[in-house]
Amino acid sequence: MAEHLLYTILARYYDVIYREYLENVVPRLVDAYEQVFREYAGRMVRDVLDAACGTGGPSLELAKRGYSVVGVDLHEEMIRVAKEKSAKAGLKVSFRVADARGLDKVFSPGNFDAVTMFFSSINYMTNLGDLASLMRSASYVLREGGVLVADAPNPYSSFYRHGSRGENTAIAWSVEYSETGERIVLLDWREVVDWLNGVVRLMRLVTIAGRSGETRTYLVSDTLRYYTGTEFVLVARSNGFREAYALCYQAGRVAERGINCSRLVFVAVKKP
Question: pTM score, two decimals?
Fold first, then answer.
C-alpha cells in the first residue's frame, strides 16, 4: 500500500479514472469560483495560482475562460501530464512542481489575484499546522484584495453518510482506457482514523486489465482531514487573512445558506 500512489505511478490513469468529474463537475465548480471572484474578491481577478493542480483539469478550464494561470502540484508525474494536456489544447498555462504550503519559497510576494484549490485538495492538510502554513503561504503570494478559494466536503454531511451507510462499505466501479484498451476496475472504501479531528483514510484497490488478460493490482490510500467552516475561518483569520467565509456549494453556485449542503467552498480575502 502506498499513500498518493495514484498521483505518481498511476498518474497517467488519473484523467481516465476521473473523466466524468473533469468533464462534468469541474466546469460547474469553476462557475462557482468565478462567482466568488466577482462577489468576494477586493480586486479584479486576472492572475490565478491553481495550487495542488493535479493533471491540470481546473487550471485549463480557468485558462479557457481567459485567466492567466500558473498550476503547481507536489507530484512531478502529475505536472508532466498537465504540461502534455496544456500543449495539446494549445493553452498557455505554466506548470511547476511546488508544495502549496511553501508557495512563498517559489513565488515573489503579491504575484496573484487568486489562489485556488479544487477537488478537496485543502483536505490533504491533515493537521492545523499544515493548514496554517497553507494560509500564510497563500497570503504571501496574493495581492491586496486577492482571494484563496477551496472546495471541500461538508464534514457534517460526510460523517452522517459514514454512519448511515457503514464506515467501511465498499463501492465497486470501472472505466475503460480507450487509448490502450485497458479496463480499470476500482474498489473504494473509507476508514475513519480519527473521529475527534475528522481524519479519514480513503482506500482504493485498483486493478488494471490489459487486452490480453494480464492484470496489475495496486492498493492505494489518501489521508484527508474534513474541516468545518468554523475551523477554516479561525485558521484563516489567524494566518494572514482579515476576512474568511464558509459557503454552501450547490449546482455551480455558492450561497451563505443552503439546504442539503454536502459540499463547501472556503473563501479567505487578503485585506490590509
Answer: 0.95
